[in-house]
Amino acid sequence: MQIEIDFEVFKSLTARRENEADSYNAVIRRLLELDPPAAEFTKLIGEKSLWIGNVEFPHGTRFRATYKGKTYLAEAADGRWVDAEGNERNSPSDAAFQITHTNVNGWRFWHALRPGDTKWQRLDGFKS
Question: What is the pTM of this model?
Answer without folding.
Answer: 0.65
